[in-house]
Each structure stands twice: as C-alpha cells, then as structure tokens.
Q: What sequence folds into this?
C-alpha cells in the first residue's frame, strides 16, 4: 500500500516509462539526433536534446525539422531515421537503469498488473514488452496524442481494467511525469538526465536500486 497524505491506498497497477526509466536509451537517441544534425551541417547541443526527452516522437521530429532547417524529410521520415539508429544501437549490450528490471520482475511475482507506457514506437517497445513481464504495451505510434497529454496512461489503465487514480506511474522526465499526473496517477519520479519538478501525488527517489514491492507500498506521496 502507498500512503497518500494521511490515507493508505493500494495501487491497482504499476505503469512504466521505458526510455531512461528502465533502459538507458537516451544516449542512443541523442547520438542519432546529433548524427542527423551533422549530416545537414548543423549543430545539435545537449540542451536541444534534453528538450525532447520523453516527448511524442512526431512532435520531436517536427522540432528537429524546424530547428535543423531540414527541407527534404517529413517529421515521420525523421522519426524513422532516429528509430532505425536506436534499434541498431540496442543490438549491442543493453544498459539497464539500476533496480528497474528487478522491481518489475518482483512485482510480477506478486501478480501486480504492469504496463509499459512509452513514446518509443513498436519497433523499440515490443521487444521489451516481450522480454519483461508486462501485461500490455502502449507505444507512441498507437496514439494520436502522446506525452505530456494524459492519453498514454489513460489507455494503459483502460487496457488493464483499472482506475488511473489507483495506479503508480514510474517516470524519468518532466514530460512523462506531466502525462501521468494529467491522467490522475500517482507518480514515482526517478530523474536520470534532467530534473523533474515536484507536483501533487508525486514523489522523487534518486534510484530504484534495492527498491522492493514492499518498499513501494510504504512510500508517502504529496497531496
């Protein structure tokens, strides 16, 4: 159970972001963006890349197209370019975020419903959905509106047959946390590359290392 203010609540399901939360793909995304910029003779700064973390990919593609002055690619083509390079990068050794896989498997052992809720498209999301014990996968290409809109988390909760207000979302970015908050979830934030502002029904921890299902049930969330 999770304490919410003075009240004790069960979480009906745990909803997981992927990039930066479970697996450290952010260097792959940033590398692909930089490669694209260089191919057009442009500079892509870390700050530019940070602004895209957690975003809907077509939105990111449109931003890249505008900022880099790309005239011969659509946002969809830019997304396809990025995905191909991230998928290629994932063929090597996968860098997992500390404690995430262990916690996912421990929750599954306790029959806690779990969903993967990511803005990555199915080419990236589906293999992780099969590798880890998720009950459903919501990927960015299944949605008309991605994060920071509530739609991804609302869809995940609907598929699991639970109320979003009874769910715990795990996120590493302000955009993702905003999406989960807008859906009404409690949000456990685990910042990775960028910081996440506080908010209602939100709690930040530095790492998931050694976090157990029992520990999750004792967390105190702000009103």
A:
């Amino acid at each position: 159970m999770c304490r919410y203010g003075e009240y004790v609540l069960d979480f009906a399901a745990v909803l997981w972001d992927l990039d930066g939360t479970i697996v450290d793909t952010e260097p792959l995304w940033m590398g692909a963006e930089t490669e694209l910029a260089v191919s057009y003779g442009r500079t892509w700064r870390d700050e530019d890349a940070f602004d895209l973390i957690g975003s809907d990919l077509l939105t990111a593609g449109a931003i890249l197209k505008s900022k880099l002055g790309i005239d011969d690619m659509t946002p969809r083509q830019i997304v396809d370019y990025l995905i191909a390079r991230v998928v290629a990068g994932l063929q090597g050794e996968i860098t997992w975020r500390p404690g995430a896989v262990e916690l996912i498997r421990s929750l599954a052992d306790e029959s806690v419903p779990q969903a993967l809720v990511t803005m990555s498209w199915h080419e990236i999301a589906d293999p992780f959905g099969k590798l880890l014990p998720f009950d459903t996968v919501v990927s960015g290409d299944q949605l008309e509106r991605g994060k920071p809109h509530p739609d991804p988390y609302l869809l995940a909760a609907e598929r699991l047959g639970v109320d979003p207000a009874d769910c715990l979302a795990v996120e590493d970015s302000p955009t993702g946390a905003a999406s989960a908050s807008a859906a009404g979830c409690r949000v456990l934030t685990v910042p990775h590359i960028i910081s996440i502002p506080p908010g209602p029904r939100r709690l930040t921890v530095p790492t998931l290392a050694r976090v157990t299902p029992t520990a999750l049930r004792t967390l105190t969330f702000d009103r």
